[in-house]
Amino acid sequence: MHAKINMKQFIFIVLCLVLTACSNQSIEKVEPINLRLTTTTSVNDSGLMEYLRPFILEDLNMNLEIVSLGSGAAIEAGQRGDADVLLVHSPSAEKTFVEEGYGLKRSTFMYNFFVIVGPEEYKEEFKNLSAMNAFLLIYKNYPFISRGDNSGTHNKEKNIWKSTELDYVVVSQDTSFYYSSGSGMGDTLIMASEKQAFTLTDLSTFLSMKDKLDLEVIIDSSNDLINDYSIIVINPDKVENVNSEAALMFEEWMLSEKALNLISEYGKEEYNQSLFFTY
Amino acid sequence: MNEILQIVLNSIFICLTSTTIATLFGVPIGLIMGMSTKRWIIKIRPIISSLAGLPPVLAGITIFLLLSNAGPLGSYRLLYTHTAIISAQVLIVLPLIIASVYPLVLPIKSSFLETCYGLHISNVKQLKYLVNELRYGILAAILIGFGRAMAEVGAVMMVGGNIRYKTRVMTTAIVLETNQGNYKTALILGVFLLFISFGINFIVHSVFKEVNHDSL
After folding, report:
1. Tens of pLDDT, residues A161-192
2. Of A74, A150, A183, the CB nearest to B162
3. B214 domain residue, yes or no
4. Interface test with A, best of B66, B162, B169 (most A CBs within 10 A)
5. Predicted interface score ipTM higher than 0.95
6. What is the pTM (predicted TM-score) of this model?
């Protein structure tokens, strides 16, 4: 009997302790705001957002819920109200998106370069070529793997083919050299490595996988390989249930000097080069 | 439309091939496993059953590593080909068919063996009679295998690479359309897939009914 009462008292004390501990915590901290950010696979795979996350939590008390999709699907998610803000790199699709009224605001704030990668043995042959001329040399001569998924990278590739004045539809159906993988950047790079083929990739994904791939950078920093990234805040008048207030706060922070400095520093430690440059 | 048709035919060709191969090996192995009284065969039954639940990506990665440039069969350049997809599907479907066939034998085993001994029937003929006896169960096993092959995504993506006009099949096309946000096309392809499954099941069942003069 005596022991039982003690047990009850004990449980009561423990409960009191737990409850006070809980309430103390919630008094100390205001629940962070959740922001649904949909971004392209290339940004997500580079680890940039994870690197910025603690700074955003500290400065804005904002918690990022990141979904990573290809640019095409990211924009679709924006239209459906599955995201508050987008971070994408597909300029022509972005413009249409904003023109149709889905985007409240679009700010192009950082860039990096696409690179053409391929087997090391062709490095000499492709030396000093622009991306356009490299594509002309690849055409019908060497296997080329395309993302083929309407992603930002795929759209860039289409634009380069267009600049060669070849008909992209004809090129993309020429199965003698053109392989449309319909996969993400990582899978496409693995395929290029296995087939010893050329492909267009963003530098950050390539660097993060380089030691697993039997590929080298063949063309880099050509002016026609620039890769612009933009933030788009979803328009609350057109799309229901989006948190545009938080999205605007996030956008403002990303354009601040502090954020831009952090972004241009990113990658220097790990790869000895910046992965993104800011405007 | 033309491309969708090509994808559909591609899927059907690949799955029929893999299911046929798995059937040719799986059904005899299943029947022999069911009939056998050898202890080691009885002991490996649970292993086969658990392989039937093998995660398809495991089959995928196995085939991938075998066929990849750095793998033992790399020089044959089979990665991202129909052969690669078919091999992965066989690896997935074969244990499923074996594991569905051998339990069919168990309930009729003793009476069947008695009859065979009584009539002095050879081993090969025994198998033939057994197939005839268990035809419905075996058919069901094959159809389950075929359905499994048609439904597979992960392994097919891994070893086939979802290459347009070459190794793109219905399931990988659906994933691609979904990733691009083309939910409508993805859904249309999904409905196609469902109808193909319906179609094949109906055809097989009606052929069976005719052959056996079922009243159903």
Report:
1. 999 999 999 999 999 999 999 988 889 999 99
2. A183
3. no
4. B162
5. no
6. 0.78
